[in-house]
């Protein structure tokens, strides 16, 4: 258990930052607990007055007024510790969640290829709640428990040491129970949190793939899979509850034994006249109050164990090092936007064969590069090395004569604009999606880039025009509409190097040609890289390369590649036949 509690070292800087909140909260907590310790003394005095027979209304009235004043102090103290300690725990939760999200933004795509969205969401929500409890109510239970236990024991032993020694005999067994329960609870709660992650993963995956599920009529299959995970989560929760459910009744039983011992030995002393009835009732009150610290100790162990388990899951992400970072003293400015690739070889960690092998390309500023190749030929790997979405080896990729690894990441990636084939849109308006990469998008700029991508033709049929919310991942738009919104988004940024990764695959050939011509006209003087399977698009390129198994199999302009034959010519001839066939069919 000690190893798991080492996870709390992550929270030390936060606890130090809010040390005054915690200090003031603890002071208020001590005032509250101290006030509660005085109450039995008022009760003792009142009972002794009544038993002695010298009942005086004025004296009892003074006790009542003093008790009412004490209640006000206790109430103010209780408000104070809640405000300061719970306030600090909420702030720590928010800052730690912000740190987690910031770190997630730094991690490379390779990390997300293995991580699951549902699991990450569970850690950012459910685990954070457990950490908040550990930094808030667990501290309250611990401080209150220690203070109340020590204070009550001092009061009991100072008033009647013999009776106190007899009545607290069951308490050491509670300590043993707490130590045992803490170890088991930590393990079981970690299993519960992992079960919640699996449940979140299955839910998120089902919702994200709902179209595929419905199209293949697989609802019963996914219902069964969800039921299996849900029942497993229930089983882990019940295992946890069984252990934790036994703890409280056992502690309550041991606490009840203290009252039984008091009745036996304390009652005897009252009859013998060794102690007064008021002392007996006060002792019983203190023993009843002592039950809370014992229960609170178990609660503290439980909450701290849960917090440690959750912190371990959060720390597992925070300890994941970003693979791609800016170097100290990184280059902050590009002297020119000439792109040069020299003998680039990339081998993915999980693959035996290189994704790229000895690729060399020179792309002067203001020119267009076309890339053609079969699936798996290395096209996407090539373009991802340029802005360091995949880290290239040193001295292989240069922008303006400077190794891309020597640039500040923000500066480097600011030079590029990428429109991937798998378009991602945010759950926002079309205007917000188009203006995503710029600080402020004017109406004139919006209209211009929308006209270039031709998405402006579809705006009129949408319910609220550019203010139409597209839904999560742009689910309300067609594939072609999403691609054209993404193109508008890249054009609004107007980067020095625009990369279109098969970004027009969902539009017809004629529309693609119109859009490309408009893009090239708009981007005169700036570089463009186009990946496409359509020769009609690639014929606009100043240089075109044909990728095959990580190599450049052919290079040249459109006319040169046609003359060379090979894959480029084969695809060209095939597409020409398809176009003639389509025209003949239309005629």
Descriptive account of the structure:
- The protein has 587 residues and is α/β, with parallel strands linked by helices.
- The chain is 65% helix and 9% strand.
- The chain has 22 helices and ten strands.
- Helix 4 runs antiparallel to helix 6 and helix 7 packs across helix 8.
- The longest helix has 54 residues.
- The mean pLDDT is 83.
Keywords for this entry:
single chain; 587 residues; alpha/beta; ABC transporter transmembrane region fold; Rossmann fold; six-stranded mixed β-sheet; 65% helix; elongated
Write the layout of secondary structure elements.
Blueprint lengths: L1 H4 L6 H6 L1 H34 L4 H50 L2 H6 L2 H19 L1 H23 L1 H7 L3 H38 L1 H6 L3 H54 L4 H42 L20 E8 L9 E8 L4 E6 L5 H7 L11 E3 L2 E2 L5 H6 L1 E4 L10 H5 L8 H11 L2 H4 L19 H15 L3 E5 L7 H14 L4 E5 L3 H4 L4 E6 L2 E6 L1 H7 L1 H21 L1
Parallel strand pairs: 3-8, 3-9, 6-7, 7-8
Antiparallel strand pairs: 1-2, 1-4, 4-5, 9-10
Helix pairs in contact: 3-4, 3-7, 3-12, 4-6, 6-9, 6-12, 7-8, 7-12, 9-11, 9-12, 11-12, 16-18, 21-22
The CATH class of the largest domain is: Mainly Alpha
CATH superfamily of the largest domain: ABC transporter type 1, transmembrane domain
| Class based on secondary structure composition and strand pairing | alpha/beta
- What is the number of strand segments? 10
Number of helices: 22
What's the story with the biggest beta sheet?
A: 6 strands, mixed
Q: What share of the residues does DSSP label as strand, in percent?
A: 5-15%
Rg is 36 Å
- How would you state the average pLDDT, rounded? 83
Spatial shape: elongated
């Amino acid at each position: 258990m000690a190893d798991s509690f080492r996870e709390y070292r992550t929270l030390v800087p936060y606890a130090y930052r809010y040390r005054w909140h915690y200090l003031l909260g603890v002071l208020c907590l001590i005032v509250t607990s101290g006030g509660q310790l005085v109450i039995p003394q008022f009760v003792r005095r009142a009972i002794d007055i009544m038993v002695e027979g010298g009942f005086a209304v004025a004296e009892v009235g003074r006790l009542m007024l003093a008790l009412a004043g004490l209640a006000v102090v206790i109430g103010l103290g209780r408000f104070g510790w809640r405000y300061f300690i719970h306030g600090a725990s909420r702030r720590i939760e928010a800052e730690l969640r912000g740190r987690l999200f910031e770190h997630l933004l730094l991690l490379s795509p390779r990390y997300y290829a293995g991580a699951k969205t549902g699991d990450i969401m569970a850690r950012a929500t459910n685990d954070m709640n457990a950490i908040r409890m550990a930094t808030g109510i667990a501290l309250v239970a611990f401080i209150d428990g220690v203070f109340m236990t020590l204070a009550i024991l001092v009061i009991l032993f100072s008033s009647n040491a013999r009776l106190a020694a007899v009545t607290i005999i069951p308490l050491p067994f509670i300590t043993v129970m707490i130590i045992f329960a803490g170890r088991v609870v930590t393990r079981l709660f970690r299993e519960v949190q992992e079960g919640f992650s699996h449940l979140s993963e299955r839910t998120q995956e089902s919702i994200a793939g709902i179209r595929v599920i419905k199209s293949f009529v697989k609802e019963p299959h996914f219902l069964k899979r969800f039921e299996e995970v849900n029942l497993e989560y229930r089983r882990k929760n019940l295992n946890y509850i069984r252990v934790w459910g036994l703890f409280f009744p056992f502690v309550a039983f041991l606490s009840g034994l203290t009252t039984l011992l008091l009745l036996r030995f304390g009652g005897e002393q009252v009859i013998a006249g060794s102690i007064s009835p008021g002392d007996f009732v006060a002792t019983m009150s203190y023993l009843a109050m002592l039950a809370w610290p014992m229960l609170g100790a178990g609660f503290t162990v439980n909450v701290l164990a849960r917090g440690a388990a959750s912190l371990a899951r959060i720390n597992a992400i925070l300890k994941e090092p970003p693979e791609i970072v800016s170097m100290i003293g990184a280059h902050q400015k590009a002297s020119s936007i000439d792109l040069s690739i020299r003998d680039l070889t990339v081998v993915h960690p999980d693959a035996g064969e290189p994704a790229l092998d000895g690729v060399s390309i020179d792309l002067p500023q203001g020119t267009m590069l076309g890339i053609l190749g079969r699936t798996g030929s290395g096209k996407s790997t090539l373009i991802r090395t340029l802005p360091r979405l995949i880290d290239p080896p040193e001295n292989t990729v240069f922008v303006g004569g400077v190794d891309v690894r020597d640039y500040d990441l923000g500066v480097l990636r600011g030079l590029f604009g990428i429109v991937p084939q798998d378009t991602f849109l945010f759950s926002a308006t079309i205007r917000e999606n188009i203006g995503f990469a710029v600080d402020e998008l004017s109406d004139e700029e919006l209209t211009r880039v929308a006209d270039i991508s031709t998405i402006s033709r579809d705006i009129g049929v949408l319910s609220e025009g550019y203010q139409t919310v597209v839904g999560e991942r742009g689910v309300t738009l067609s594939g072609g509409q999403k691609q054209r919104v993404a193109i508008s988004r890249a054009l609004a940024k107007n980067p020095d190097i625009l990369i279109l990764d098969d970004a027009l695959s969902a539009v017809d050939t004629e529309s693609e040609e119109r859009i490309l011509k408009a893009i090239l006209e708009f981007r005169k003087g700036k570089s463009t890289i186009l990946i496409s399977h359509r020769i009609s698009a690639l014929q606009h390129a100043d240089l075109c390369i044909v990728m095959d198994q990580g190599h450049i199999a052919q290079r040249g302009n459109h006319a040169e590649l046609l003359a060379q034959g090979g894959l480029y010519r084969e695809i060209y001839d095939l597409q020409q036949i398809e176009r003639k066939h389509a025209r003949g069919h239309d005629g």
